[in-house]
Write a structure and sequence with these properties.
coiled coil; Spermatogenesis_Ciliary_MAP; about 55% helix; two-stranded antiparallel sheet; CH_2; microtubule binding; about 250 residues; flagellum; mainly alpha
């Protein structure tokens, strides 16, 4: 296997690769909001969850705790290298791990792309052992259903965050769910026995249902736009940092 920190493999991804990678990550259920991929994935916890989402039987999530210090982050990544990545023929050199822990721009994207390729290759090889309904070794592939409540509490601390853990975000992530109030209203309307209602009331209910459906579609469209804008902003930050480094190198020569 090639060394992950070789010059070729650590080449920055182009815009299309980044957009595809961000879309792939957005489809994965994670315990923390995804606001800044470089910072959010630096402690290795969300990376463990990514692997667990697709291959739950090889990851024990309680081994990975949110961390702020470089030493604790390195510990999480070391555990991933020893206990998880070896099972999918993947390894990250210590120098690359240190760059990830120090939030060096552009590194985690390359690693996530390589990890995605390893996961897909692993699932392809083990497909004959997977049941048609998506279960492998008695566990559902791409599911968090087997995670205990204890592990959930560790990953999503309630109230005051634990010692050394990153502060709990003030706002939830913008994700794929419609507003609960609208869903509850829609369900309540669909369970009404309309045959007992006057025609004008039935017409009014139909109008309300259509309005709710239109609102839900609008919310989903806006959420998708927000995710795209967040990805574009991050992409611009990466490009700005690259240009700044080049300018500093140029100034240093003269």
């Amino acid at each position: 296997m090639k060394d992950t920190d070789s010059k070729d493999e650590m080449t920055a991804l182009d815009d299309q690769q980044l957009q595809e990678l961000y879309a792939w990550v957005d489809e994965i259920t994670l315990s923390r909001p995804k606001r800044n991929i470089t910072r959010d994935f630096s402690d290795g916890v969300l990376v463990a969850e990514v692997v667990h989402f697709f291959i739950p039987r090889i990851v024990e999530l309680h081994n990975y705790t949110p961390a702020n210090s470089t030493m604790q982050k390195m510990g999480n990544w070391g555990t991933l290298n020893r206990k998880v990545f070896t099972k999918i023929n993947f390894n990250i050199p210590e120098s690359v791990i240190r760059s990830i822990c120090n939030c060096k721009a552009g590194v985690i994207e390359v690693i996530l792309l390589q990890l995605r390729q390893k996961i897909e290759k692993y699932l392809g090889k083990n497909k004959p052992n997977m049941s048609p309904d998506g279960y492998y070794g008695g566990q559902e592939v791409g599911s968090f259903s087997d995670r205990s409540e204890k592990h959930k509490r560790k990953l999503v601390p309630a109230g005051k965050p634990p010692k050394h853990a990153a502060p709990a975000p003030k706002a939830p992530t913008v994700h794929h769910h419609s507003p609960p109030s609208n869903l509850a209203k829609a369900r309540s309307l669909t369970h009404i026995n309309r045959s007992d209602l006057p025609p004008e009331i039935r017409d009014l209910l139909d109008e309300k249902e259509q309005a709710l459906l239109a609102s839900q579609e609008t919310v989903q469209i806006l959420q998708a736009k927000v995710r795209r804008l967040e990805n574009l902003l991050h992409l611009k930050d990466v490009r700005i940092e690259e240009v700044t480094k080049k300018m500093q190198q140029y100034d240093g020569r003269y």
